[in-house]
Amino acid sequence: MQLGQYSVPACLHDGSPVNDTEVYATGWGTTESKQSTIPDILQKVVLERFSDDECQARYNRLSIRNMPQGYDRNTQICYGHRNMNKDSCKGDSGGPLQIKHPEIKCMYLVTGIVSNGKWCAIPGIPSINTRVASYLDWIESIVWP
């Protein structure tokens, strides 16, 4: 792959303080909750961060069958949109959540990985994502054994 205007490297977030109140999610997933067709063009959306307390309240132990311990603020992070139908959706899982790198111009910093949500693109209901910094040692042990 050649690097260019639309193809640039990205760094992995190490947990240091960054402004991740808004992130870019990119993916090939559906663009509506009950839609089954996928787009022909890579999609990008700007998402808002929801606080750990908001996520904890939304995804408590009783609400998600596959998350018996509920939301884990150490390994998970929530994004969505409070007022608009913007979100990651079915087919986007495993894709990046990123911000513009705070120090290196023209690069991005991957802060999260799209994971799951009960629905998608419903205003005020965030999706749960994986915090990259929590798994950085494991990722690097696989990439650079």
Automatic annotation (TrEMBL):
Keywords of this entry: Disulfide bond, Glycoprotein, Secreted, Signal
A single GO molecular function term of this UniProt record: serine-type endopeptidase activity
One Pfam family linked to the record: Trypsin
InterPro entries cross-referenced by the UniProt entry: Peptidase_S1_PA, Peptidase_S1_PA_chymotrypsin, Ser/Thr_Proteases_Immune/Dev, Trypsin_dom, TRYPSIN_SER
Signal in keyword set: yes
Localization per record: Secreted
A GO cellular component entry from the record: extracellular region
SMART domains given in the database record: Tryp_SPc (SM00020)
Superkingdom: Eukaryota
Domain Peptidase S1: 1-144
Gene Ontology BP, a term: proteolysis
Family listed: Belongs to the peptidase S1 family. CLIP subfamily.
Name the UniProt record assigns to this protein: Peptidase S1 domain-containing protein
Organism: Euphydryas editha (Edith's checkerspot)
